């Protein structure tokens, strides 16, 4: 290996490790912000609920429109419609819109359930579109043109809002005239379905219990999570309305609304249960959309963020938020460059530099686990038992680095892709929707074998610093790749 190539390998490896370390260290920052902001946030939340607690007796309540976005989701559409109609709110002030773009038998079932619910006194209306312009964002925008509500609640079809959802969220709009959004926490309907769902629930809880809370409670930009949120209609309009030029229209709108001066509130104790993807293929599809959409949003909005009259720390945290999925190309780079770096080490680079790499990797790898631990302790009394699934979550997080790196790359080159919803199972499992065949699973398996081979070379050379990380990379790529392949071949149970 030439000196120039050796220098390039070391530079790229250090660059990737350094970027991972920075994002990892920010997890510790978010943990600190969460703990600092929690007492004050709880007092403010309790004060609002005490002041506006008897909501049903008030005569000045705003009209609320609940929007349910549905597309070929026969398994779950009926369940969310019935749940929306069960939400308590004064008669005549709550309407339900079912934004049904379905092209299968879901359409007939939605119409039948809506007719039944109208007969029981629920103000529910089904809106069909002949053309799915803008996909989900387009459906929400189309429905809002016909909505009566001053406030607009948004739910995906696999969510089940609790009966008191409006009673616990509307008061914050009465207390804050500049409040644009109230975001609830996602719960888990099918957490116990499998090891895969148990593991994902830890990651979801980490995002909501720590990341969302830390941002919101410390005056930082927070995003709408696409569902389980209540919007002020004028805030949506002031922010420019729904756009569909990114795959994460929720993050895009959230930032534009906050750029326009509107505030947000996150309620960790208001939980809306939802379904977790039950197989690795569906999980990868969901993560691909989030990764690509986040980078698309960053490319679109970072120039505006720089010009915002807010503190630099707030801008920095927004940057980390929108670009978080850059960690996956960095992980992929580390896994590929590990073996070439060993060759460089064997021609003269000593253990000091190598030790620096190991420290950077250790900090970056442990930080998310620390964040997940804090979130589980905050949310559940049985948190210790739940944390037993953390190793599987770590493997899944590593294993999706290939597909998420593709998503990031496509975002940077401007390659468009359609909005693909995550398959749902539903209560009765009426029908099993399947994800399309993956094409990256073989590459993931090969990369896992490559990392395992690299680990063998490191151990043979008595270079033990990087060994644990290569073991995790090998396990993660093989775990995700083999499960994806099994799913595509119909071999999963």
Structure commentary:
The chain is an alpha/beta fold and 493 residues long. The chain has 17 helices and 7 strands. The chain folds into 2 domains: 3-28 and 324-488; 63-279 and 286-310, Spore Coat Polysaccharide Biosynthesis Protein SpsA, Chain A, CATH 3.90.550.10. 59% of the residues lie in helices and 10% in strands. The protein has a 7-stranded mixed beta sheet, with helices on both faces. Strand 1, helix 2 (77-86) and strand 2 form a beta-alpha-beta unit. Helix 1 runs antiparallel to helix 11. It is globular and about 75 Å long. The protein starts with a helix and ends in a 5-residue tail after the last helix. It is a multi-pass membrane protein.
Draw up the topology in text.
Elements lengths: L2 H49 L12 E7 L6 H10 L7 E7 L5 H14 L4 E5 L6 H11 L5 E6 L8 H11 L3 E10 L6 H23 L11 E4 H6 L10 H11 L3 E12 L5 H28 L4 H11 L4 H19 L5 H29 L3 H4 L3 H10 L1 H13 L27 H20 L6 H22 L5
Parallel strand pairs: 1-2, 1-4, 2-3, 5-7
Antiparallel strand pairs: 4-6, 5-6
């Amino acid at each position: 290996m030439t000196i120039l190539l050796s220098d390039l390998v070391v530079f790229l490896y250090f660059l990737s490790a350094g970027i991972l370390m920075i994002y990892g260290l920010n997890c510790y920052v978010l943990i600190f912000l969460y703990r600092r902001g929690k007492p004050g946030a709880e007092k403010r939340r309790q004060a609002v609920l005490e002041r506006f607690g008897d909501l049903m007796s008030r005569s000045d309540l705003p009209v609320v429109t609940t929007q349910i976005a549905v597309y070929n989701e026969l398994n779950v559409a009926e369940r969310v419609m019935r749940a929306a109609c069960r939400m308590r709110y004064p008669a005549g002030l709550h309407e339900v819109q079912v934004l049904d773009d379905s092209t299968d038998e879901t359409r007939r079932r939605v119409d039948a359930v809506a007719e039944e619910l109208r007969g029981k006194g629920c103000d529910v209306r089904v809106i069909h579109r002949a053309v799915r312009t803008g996909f989900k964002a387009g459906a929400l925008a189309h429905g809002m043109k016909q909505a009566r509500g001053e406030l607009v609640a948004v739910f995906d079809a696999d969510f089940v809002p609790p009966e008191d959802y409006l009673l616990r969220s509307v008061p914050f709009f009465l207390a804050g005239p500049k409040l644009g959004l109230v975001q609830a926490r996602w719960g888990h309907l099918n957490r116990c379905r499998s090891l895969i769902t148990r593991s994902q629930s830890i990651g979801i809880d980490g995002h909501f219990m720590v990341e969302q809370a830390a941002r919101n409670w410390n005056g930082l930009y927070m995003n709408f999570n696409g569902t389980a949120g209540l919007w002020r209609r004028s805030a949506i309009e002031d922010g420019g309305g729904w756009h569909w030029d990114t795959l994460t229209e929720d993050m895009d709108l959230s930032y534009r609304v906050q750029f326009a001066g509107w505030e947000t509130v996150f309620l960790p104790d208001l939980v809306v249960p939802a379904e977790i993807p039950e197989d690795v293929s569906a999980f990868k599809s969901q993560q691909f959309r989030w990764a690509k959409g986040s980078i698309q949003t960053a490319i679109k909005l970072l120039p505006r963020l720089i010009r915002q009259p807010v503190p630099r720390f707030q801008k920095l945290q927004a940057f980390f938020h929108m670009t978080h999925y850059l960690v996956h190309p960095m992980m992929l780079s580390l896994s590929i460059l590990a073996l070439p770096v060993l060759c460089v080490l064997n021609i003269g680079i000593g253990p000091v530099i190598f030790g620096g790499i190991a420290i950077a990797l250790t900090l970056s790898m442990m930080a998310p686990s620390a964040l997940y631990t804090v979130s589980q302790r905050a949310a559940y009394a049985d948190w210790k038992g739940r944390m037993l699934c953390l190793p599987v979550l770590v493997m899944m997080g590593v294993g999706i680095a290939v597909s998420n790196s593709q998503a990031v790359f496509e975002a940077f080159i401007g390659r468009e892709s359609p909005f693909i919803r995550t398959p749902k199972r539903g209560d009765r499992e009426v029908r099993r929707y399947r994800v399309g065949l993956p094409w990256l699973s073989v590459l993931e398996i090969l990369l896992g074998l490559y990392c395992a081979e690299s680990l063998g070379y490191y151990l043979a050379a008595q270079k033990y610093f990087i060994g644990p990380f290569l073991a995790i990379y090998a396990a993660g790529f093989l775990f995700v790749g083999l499960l994806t392949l099994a799913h595509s071949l119909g071999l999963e149970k």
